[in-house]
């Protein structure tokens, strides 16, 4: 077997016979001597006018065996009679924590405030039909967490947190396509990720763990300064050290911890809008071709980042071939997010366009870690008011935003609940809007055609991360103040995305076992 790197055209990358011939030539063999070529890594180089695929492949000579990846080789033990650890939240941090606990011989008891992932899918469909938020089962709450129905992208730069490939292989073990192991920007897809999540839950239960839906944690059980369990809203007690993996939208948890004088701290976030273009326009820009992506390239992605007045402005959670969705988790707030199915096949591309905000930017002299959270909530309420107290997203053409005028009409949109004309400059914080104006001009200079009347801005994108951190000790992930409490994932302020949250959940599980 020969491992080689190839730089080929998209058409060549799609043809196995051509890949065999190119691989053979690079190795110094004839094409007839190459029995099979397996792609192990794949990335697109679209920096120049001519597009290339960067491949890492394994070329097998005739007679050499190629053993396919086997994701069923790991056997989870039976932990039904083991001591328990309570995991609050069934997002990526919670699910991966639970699986790691099983590997370590501990029984996870998972408490999820929302519905199971398939019931949640029905609830989300109802939200998009009625325009009424279901408080405990929506795009933010429920099995799988916020990532389950907001794209399922698995790309992360957080390689220092742990073994990213281990997370990807765990997804494959539970039904994800092995293509996520080769793609530079792996993506399961909103339509496929629920099936994988369901398989993970079934594994937890099959190994003797517990998963409780519609079970919102209301209190921690504490004894002599140590957490030894959790109490649900209906009064049930669950005993064990607690991994708190509630996600960034579970704001009632922050308020509870604050009321119990459990240490919290403010942290910076990024806030802005969902920016939606026609996918064909993005394809033309990114692939330098008037006909778009053609037959051999996927829906184009983009990444933009700049500094404006001392703060970062950047694209976030880019969804090629995707949809904009309502991400509110309660009444009286208007929040949007993006998602895309596995085939990335819609006619629109969207991303968050967000501005870095530090707590001191808007609250110069805070006397509580909750004040910045309350400021964020007020912006979400302002967005709801701008939407005429509905989930019809406040929206504006990109060019009209720069002209400081309300849009008279809109291009077609993926957002199914409809749009409300709104001049975002009039109610969004100026620390956001003024920087977006300058950044959009810079991005258009970098990529002509990006700033266009065909693009829509939908408000408000405010759930990029948590504005509150639950501080913990770096050496063992334990809360700085209380034993037996292990804050994990995005809700604790220590992750940003599916993979980093999963890695953080794994790490907290390991310390929950050794420190319990």
Descriptive tags:
516 residues; alpha+beta; 7-stranded mixed β-sheet; 5-stranded parallel β-sheet; 14 helices; 29% helix
Brief digest:
By secondary structure, the protein is α+β, with helices and mostly antiparallel strands. It is built from 14 helices and 22 strands. Helix 3 packs parallel to helix 6 (193-206) and helix 3 packs across helix 14.
Description:
It is a single chain. The protein has 516 residues and is α+β, with helices and mostly antiparallel strands. The chain is built from 14 helices and 22 strands. Strands 13-14-17-12-20-18-19 form a 7-stranded mixed β-sheet. It has a 5-stranded parallel β-sheet with strand order 6-5-4-10-22. Strands 1-3-2 form a 3-stranded antiparallel β-sheet.
Q: How do the strands of the widest beta sheet line up side by side?
A: 13-14-17-12-20-18-19
Instruction: Specify the biggest β-sheet.
Output: 7 strands, mixed
Tell how many strands the DSSP assignment holds: 22
- Our measurement of the CA-to-CA distance between the termini, rounded to an integer number of angstroms, reads 47 Å
Kindly name the structural category.
alpha+beta
Shape: globular
How many helical stretches?
14
Mean pLDDT: 92
Strand content: 15-25%
Radius of gyration: 24 Å
Give unreliable regions as ranges: none
Roughly what percent helix? 25-40%
């Amino acid at each position: 077997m020969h491992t080689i790197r190839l730089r080929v055209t998209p058409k060549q990358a799609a043809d196995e016979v051509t890949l065999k011939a190119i691989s053979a030539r690079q190795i110094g063999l004839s094409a007839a001597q190459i029995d099979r070529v397996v792609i192990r890594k794949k990335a697109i180089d679209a920096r120049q006018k001519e597009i290339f695929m960067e491949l890492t492949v394994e070329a097998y000579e005739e007679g050499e065996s190629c053993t396919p990846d086997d994701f069923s080789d790991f056997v989870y033990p039976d932990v039904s009679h083991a001591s328990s650890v309570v995991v609050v939240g069934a997002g990526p941090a919670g699910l991966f924590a639970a699986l790691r606990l099983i590997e370590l011989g501990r029984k996870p008891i998972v408490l999820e405030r929302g519905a199971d992932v398939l019931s949640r899918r029905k609830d989300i469909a109802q939200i998009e039909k009625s325009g009424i938020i279901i408080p405990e089962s929506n795009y933010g709450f429920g099995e799988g967490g916020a990532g389950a129905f907001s794209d399922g992208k698995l790309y992360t730069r957080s390689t220092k947190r742990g073994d990213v490939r281990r997370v990807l292989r765990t997804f494959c073990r539970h039904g994800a396509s092995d293509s996520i192991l080769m793609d530079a920007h792996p993506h399961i897809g909103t339509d496929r990720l629920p099936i994988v999540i369901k398989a993970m839950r079934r594994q937890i239960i099959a190994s003797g763990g517990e998963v409780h839906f519609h079970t919102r944690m209301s209190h921690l059980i504490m004894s002599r300064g140590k957490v030894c369990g959790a109490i649900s809203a209906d009064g049930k007690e669950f005993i064990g050290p607690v991994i708190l993996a509630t996600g960034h939208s579970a704001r009632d948890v922050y308020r509870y911890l604050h009321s119990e004088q459990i240490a919290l701290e403010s942290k910076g976030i990024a806030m802005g809008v969902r920016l939606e273009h026609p996918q064909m326009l993005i394809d033309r820009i990114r692939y330098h071709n008037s006909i778009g992506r053609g037959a051999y390239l996927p829906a184009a992605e983009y990444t933009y980042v700049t500094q404006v007045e001392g703060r970062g402005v950047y694209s976030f959670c880019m969804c090629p071939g995707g949809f904009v969705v309502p991400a509110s988790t309660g009444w009286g707030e208007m929040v949007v997010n993006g998602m895309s199915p596995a085939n990335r096949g819609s006619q629109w591309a969207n991303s968050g366009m967000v501005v870095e905000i530090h707590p001191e930017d808007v609250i110069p002299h805070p006397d509580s870690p909750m004040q910045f959270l309350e400021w964020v909530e007020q912006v979400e309420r302002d967005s709801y008011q701008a939407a005429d107290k509905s989930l019809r997203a406040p929206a504006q053409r990109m060019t009209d935003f720069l002209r400081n005028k309300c849009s008279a009409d809109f291009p077609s949109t993926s957002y199914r609940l409809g749009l409300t004309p709104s001049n975002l400059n009039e109610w969004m914080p100026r620390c956001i809007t003024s920087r977006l104006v300058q950044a959009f001009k810079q991005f258009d200079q970098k990529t002509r055609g990006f700033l266009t009347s065909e693009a829509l801005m939908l408000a408000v994108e405010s759930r990029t991360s948590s504005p509150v951190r639950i501080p913990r000790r770096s050496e063992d992930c334990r809360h700085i103040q209380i034993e037996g409490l292990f804050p994990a994932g995005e809700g604790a302020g220590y992750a940003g995305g599916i993979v980093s949250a999963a890695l953080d959940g794994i790490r907290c599980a390991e310390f929950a076992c050794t420190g319990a």
